[in-house]
TrEMBL record:
<dbReference type="Pfam" id="PF04072">
    <property type="entry name" value="LCM"/>
</dbReference>
<dbReference type="GO" id="GO:0008168">
    <property type="term" value="F:methyltransferase activity"/>
</dbReference>
<dbReference type="InterPro" id="IPR029063">
    <property type="entry name" value="SAM-dependent_MTases_sf"/>
</dbReference>
<dbReference type="GO" id="GO:0032259">
    <property type="term" value="P:methylation"/>
</dbReference>
<comment type="similarity">
    <text>Belongs to the UPF0677 family.</text>
</comment>
<keyword id="KW-0489">Methyltransferase</keyword>
<dbReference type="InterPro" id="IPR011610">
    <property type="entry name" value="SAM_mthyl_Trfase_ML2640-like"/>
</dbReference>
<keyword id="KW-0808">Transferase</keyword>
<keyword id="KW-0949">S-adenosyl-L-methionine</keyword>
<protein>
    <recommendedName>
        <fullName>S-adenosyl-L-methionine-dependent methyltransferase</fullName>
        <ecNumber>2.1.1.-</ecNumber>
    </recommendedName>
</protein>
<comment type="function">
    <text>Exhibits S-adenosyl-L-methionine-dependent methyltransferase activity.</text>
</comment>
<dbReference type="InterPro" id="IPR007213">
    <property type="entry name" value="Ppm1/Ppm2/Tcmp"/>
</dbReference>
Length: 283
């Protein structure tokens, strides 16, 4: 396999898997398949970025955002789900219902994932459509997804988790605008990271380390957003209804009854935005 996957996508998949292995049940998300797709050797748990104690906040944030999106998809009743910057997302493998899934990602990571899914016998091409798009290259994810079979006239859920920080503000706005042009009732959920100085003091060193690690691995954080900026981008893109769900609210929703102290507070927030069906040019 010549292509290499995006290292940040592998890391978040491993954190989801780590959650099922080291955190107490009930798990916020049960995703062991991502580790299988990652195809890492048995030493993966000894990686410094997989230290169970040091990475608690990170994996809590990653499973919280994934669970919130999956709950949104299921509650919406939508028949189409688009995952922007899908990485090693495994919704399509874990949810066998009628939802058609369109995964959008950069071509190298996606080609690598396709090969892994084929190798593992996990690629169901009747439900899962893999669409290569580079959000920074002026390509329209919407046009490419429609070419692959997406119906833009029916309500759709679109997610973009753990991606905005790696994009320029212009690329974020373009991807949001294309999402806002979908049928009325379509829902977009995206996560964003706040500027480090907004985080609780005890979380700041973790974020500073993560920012340095991201830059060193060739994936610098380009866009950190305040809640107002994130909501503002969604409104400017044309969404009719925009709600911010903070990491504290995600804690209340999914972690408040845990006894192991696992919490996503200080990690990524979400914006949940609903399209109103006004004519929005996706350009
Ligand atoms: C941190 S990973 C998140 C993956 C997945 N959403 C998750 O939550 O595990 C970031 C993903 O965004 C994708 N990505 C980053 N920049 C991109 C771009 N310019 N165009 C398309 N995909 C991009 C990467 O390939 C990677 O899969």
């Amino acid at each position: 396999m010549s292509e290499e996957p995006d290292s940040t996508a592998v890391r978040t998949a491993l954190w989801r898997g780590l959650h099922t292995l080291v955190d107490d049940p009930p798990h916020v998300l049960d995703d062991a398949i991502g580790v299988e797709i990652a195809g890492v050797d048995e030493t993966w748990r000894a990686r410094p970025d997989m230290d169970p104690a040091r990475t608690r906040a990170n994996r809590a944030s990653i499973v919280a955002r994934a669970r919130a999106v999956e709950d949104t998809v299921i509650a919406s009743g939508a028949g189409q789900y688009v995952i922007l910057g899908a990485g090693l997302d495994t919704f399509a493998q874990r949810h066998k219902g009628p939802v058609r899934v369109f995964e959008i990602d950069a071509s190298a990571t996606q080609a690598w994932k396709r090969a892994r899914l084929v190798q593992l016998g996990l690629l169901d091409s009747t439900r899962l459509h893999l669409v290569p798009v580079d959000f920074e290259a002026g390509e329209s994810w919407l046009d490419k997804a429609v070419e692959a079979g997406l119906d833009p006239a029916v309500p759709t859920v679109v997610s973009m988790l753990g991606v905005t920080m790696y994009l320029t503000p212009e690329a974020i706005s373009t991807t949001l605008r294309q999402s806002a042009s979908l049928a009325a009732g379509s829902i977009m959920v995206f996560s964003y990271s706040r500027p480090i100085e907004m985080a609780p003091p005890e979380v700041r060193p973790i974020l500073e380390g993560a920012a340095k690690g991201a830059a060193a691995s060739g994936h610098p954080w380009l866009s950190l957003l305040t809640p107002d900026q994130a909501a503002g981008l969604a409104r400017q893109a044309g969404f009719a209804d925009v709600e911010v769900v903070t990491s504290t609210e995600l804690h209340e929703r999914y972690f408040a009854h845990r006894h192991d102290g696992l919490s996503p507070v200080g990690g990524e927030d979400l914006v949940i935005a609903t399209a109103g069906g006004d004519h929005i040019s996706p350009e």
